[in-house]
Amino acid sequence: QEEKKQLTLKVEELERKLESTSAQNIEFLQVIAKREESIHQCQLRLEEKSRECSSLARQLEMAIEDAKRQVEQSRERAVSRERAAQSKVLDLETQLSRNKTELNQLHRSKEDAERRYESRLQDLRDRLEQSESTNRSMQNYVHFLKSSYDNVF
């Protein structure tokens, strides 16, 4: 009986240990279930973040491509404007050269006209002086004739 009592005590002790272990097992299973749920939630969030990252990466690539395209278009417009400006500068330089040539020709024409005018003016002065001299001579002759006729009559 003593042995039976000891065995009974051992069995009871083992049953308590079994219950305790079962309770711990249940707690561990609950902890494991919570952790698995947490892991599952984390995996879902990770997948969602991965999709977001992929979407953002595509958007970034599209934005970079768009920016490159805009930069290229801006560069092409700038080159086009520069060419147009250079062409305009060349046209203006050509026009300036033509205008300078024309101005020089006009200066020469003016100087020639002034020389001709001065020459013509001098000729007219000389002729006027000659005419006045002839006029005086004729007046003197007329006066001489009058005096002569007066003396004769």
TrEMBL record:
One of its GO terms (biological process) is regulation of cilium assembly. It is found in: Cell projection, Cilium, Flagellum; Cytoplasm, Cytoskeleton, Microtubule organizing center, Centrosome, Centriole; Cytoplasm, Cytoskeleton, Spindle pole. InterPro entries: Odf2-rel. One of its GO terms (cellular component) is centrosome. Residues 4-141 form a coiled coil. Keywords: Cell projection, Cilium, Coiled coil, Cytoplasm, Cytoskeleton, Developmental protein, Differentiation, Flagellum, Microtubule, Spermatogenesis. Belongs to the ODF2 family. This is Outer dense fiber protein 2.
